[in-house]
Model the fold of this input.
Amino acid sequence: MLEGKAMSKTRLEFRDVTKRFANKSQHSTEPFVTAVQHVDFAIKEGEVVSIIGPSGCGKSTLLNMGSGLDAPSEGQVFIDGQPVTGPSEHVAFMLQKDLLLPWRSIRENVELGLEIRGIAAEQRREKALDLLKKCHLGGFENHYPHQLSGGMRQRAAMARTLAVDPTVLLMDEPFSALDAQTKMVLQQDLARTLKEANKTALFITHDLVEAVALSDRVLVMSQRPGTIIQEFVIDLANRDDPMARRGDPGIAHYVPELMKLLHIGESGAKV
Amino acid sequence: MAELAPTVAPTPTMAKRMQNMFNRKEVLISTAVFIVFLIFWQWGPTWFGIPNYIIPPASDVYHEFIRMLGSDKLMYHTLYTAKGVLIGFFLGALLGMIIGYILGMSPTAEFVLSPYILALQIAPKVAFAPLFVMWFGFTSTPKILVAVLIVFFPIMVNVLGAIRTIDRDLINLVNSFKASRLQLFWKVEFRAAMPSLFSGLRIASTLAVIGIVVGEMVGGNEGLGYLLVWGSGSANTSMVFVSIIMLTLIGLVAYLAVIWAENKVLHYIPKRSSTGPQV
Done:
């Protein structure tokens, strides 16, 4: 089911990464806050790995380090075996916020990364239009972000992320601001795209079912200081079809386990 | 796929028709109000026993306007003031933008310069007018300088504030594409500050008139400020009224020009009905 994994190479690797921030809180005398510590994992080519954990466990810190926007305090992050020292052209990220520039049309927004890289206008345009079509936004290229719904805006953000042709995608709860139905549609599209293009992805989410439905593996993080406490290999078919996975009885094996690890429901709050 | 149905604004023809419907009613009401206002201005002073040299009736002001057009070169002085407003506004806005962007991009520069900027901002700018006249004589320079000084602050403060509040994640996104500092500026910071810049420009467009008129009142023999002081000195209340009306018109034109430009530049922002006249 995890076909071809054995021979593929490691794309993204966190090697014993710890990140501390200067403590800005006035209620504490500690000079540092440790966001994550001793995080150690590797993602192979074409693999989709989700990280779940309680809020404030440093998931987003991991993403910033992966994209080279933030340096680890200890340990190192590697992309294709090269230590990350700054933003890399092989990595692109996508957040919960679509971050579309309101003064640019959808097409111009998708072109942003290519434009910064100095790609010729004609090529940019072609690529953007092609991606918009693939992301089901054909015909909306000249619209402005405020004219689109949340789901469509997030599709545009996805097109912008894919436009720079990254080998590694880092996604921080990209669908968490969307309504349940839109979310499922977009998950479906994302899963298919990742599979077709054989992209490597690190997916941060707090939605357990989403994590199981989209991933080859799920890593569970502890509370702050965050560290990986458990790894689940999702041994289900249809990684490119989260809808089918949602209906797979096998999913029932993972979700309660994850709930237990995250202490969901223990404080009386039923999920 | 429910989200494929876009929330697009109503079609232009529909929007226009709706606007026309509003307009007809609104224009009718505002015309009526204007007529009432004129009637009140013409006969109100007499009703309340106010002498003409305190509040001259509308017809007196109109006759004075015609007289000034002929014998006081009113148009010349109006254009002189308008030119000053234009230059002062333009230079002040440019300076405010440049300094605002620089300080916005460099917190160090802001920290170092902020005491001076604060002092200059608190100082009443019109008080500089006599000083500038001492420096530059009865030329147009001191008038423009006062306008530049007044115009500068709202624009600088607005641009600086806008750059400071740009979403950190947006800057991260652009940086993740390995953008240069200049690319970050032109593609994000410059454009992101536009809405605030235009609110600053709106305020500044009316302030520019104040700067120029104060400069003209302090010294020189040109401009509406000069006519205003002349009229006041010769107890010609109508002349003062005409000057004030002309100054107001200059300010209005400047303000509308800014709104027009704003609608062109910020076309991507959904229209609010309170943005003033829609072009």
Q: What stands out?
A: Confidence is low (pLDDT under 50) at residues 1-11, 273-279 of chain B.
